[in-house]
Amino acid sequence: MSKRSRKETANDVAANVSGDVAASSWGRLGETSWGTTFGAVFMLALCPLMSNWFLASCTNHSCNMWAIPKELLKDPIATLKANAPGWDPAAARIYLTWLTIQAVMYVVVPGSIAHGQRTPAGHLLPYRVNGLLVYALTHIGFVLGAYAGLWELTIIADHWPGLFLCANIAGYGLTTFCYIKAHLFPTHADDRKFTGSIIYDYFMGIEFNPRFGLFDFKLFFNGRPGIVAWTLIDISFAAAQHKRYGYVTNSMVLCTLLHALYVVDFFYNESWYLRTIDIAHDHMGFYLAWGDLVWLPLMYTLQCQYLYYNPVVMPTWAVVAVASLGGVGYYIFRGTNAQKDIVRLADGKCDIWGKPAQFIRAHYRTSDGKQHQSILITSGWWGLARQVNYLGDLMISLAECLCCGFGPNALLGYFYIIYMAILLGHRIARSDARCRAKYGKYWEEYCARVPYKMIPGIY
What contacts 190, CB < 8 A, 6 or more positions away? Predict the structure, then answer.
């Protein structure tokens, strides 16, 4: 998906005198209003329609976003029929094989065991971390299979609409299964959240960590069929560009490399990902299940899809400028997250930028009544802004979109940066509400020391 978009904020609950807060106050939203229910209905309807609109715009109209709306005004029924993805038996076989291979590799490929953050109920769960090796083996196998004549590198691009339809079936199926599982046989019943709204619970999820043994649904479905596929899709559309035009543009190569940098970093630091919002705070509902299987592989690869239909040859200065923007963004993104890990692993007993780390030792409670502590860093990168890592994320996203140039249909290629800006802005608000409820007076002190949210001196 970043991946992350991926939602309502937790309730603000004031801390008591000691600054401790009950776990029920900092988990996912525990009750809903008509507004949150309406928002869930809106997103359940909007996301599938928007994703199909973007797919059909590329496939049938060379990524012209306005062609379908104009046709709808003339003949709605015919337009819907012409732009709906059709059933593709070959795509169904490919997709089922893909999910099966990724599931088997998740279980059998060697890797380490890492632990995520403590859940609101106090559980500290182990995760199988083997993503980097799975990613490498998958890509090597994909290329070698094409070289051996078992398939063409264009196989994904050739069956793209059919794969999209299969992904939707899988996304809705997984969402429904997780909803039923949460009611009938949850993994950790004390970490479930019921709001009383069937629609909202279906959208945002009930169960926190649905799993069978070490097979964790959230880590697998986001980190395997979704993110592993990201650069496979890029490679396939690059191969399709070569097949169609006889060459691969430098913009396609640069965009694929920027995507690969982000994805490889994700898998290299997979144990770090266990402490991000998707794993540590979100429940498993439509938002993650459908988002991981449909939204992420379709919407995050829009730039390379656009470049297949609209080749862009960038001047050398533009390649250097865009690559530099992405590189600086990655430096900020990786530097901030690495700094946080170093300080927390050293329990604050380390230097940041040549000076002793400054931090607040915050205390909180889980629903089992136990007290825990965490570190809120107030120096280095994290002294500049509370979510300064998101600034690097946005710079990388903008660099990827700039590869699409400024042609007449390029707006679709810039959807990703628009989406990421909205997503990360929303996440900042959610994170603030959740941390304010979790840490109480410690969070108030942290905000006083670090007043900016994402962009130092500005926002």
Answer: 121, 367, 368
pLDDT, tens digit, 9 for 90 and up, residues 151-163: 999 999 999 999 9
Query: Ramachandran region of residue 348, left (φ > 0), alpha (ψ -120 to 50) or beta?
Result: left
What pTM value is reported for the model? 0.86
Asked whether the beta carbons of 228 and 138 are under 8 A apart, the reply is: yes
What are the two backbone dihedrals, phi and then psi, of residue 163, each rounded to the nearest 5 degrees?
A: -65, -35
Average pLDDT, the chain: 88
CA distance 220 to 238: 27
Number of Cβ within a 10 Å radius of residue 152: 15
Q: Cβ distance 31 to 196 under 8 Å?
A: yes
Which residue's structure tokens are 């029920």?
Answer: 24
CA distances from 226 to 1, 218, 296, 396, 424 (A): 7, 11, 6, 19, 19
Q: State the residue for tokens 């299987």.
A: 293
Residue 97: exposure state from Cβ atoms within 10 A (0-12, 13-18, ≥19): exposed
Q: Which of 131-140, 175-184, 417-426 has the lowest mean pLDDT?
A: 417-426
Average pLDDT over residues 64-68: 94
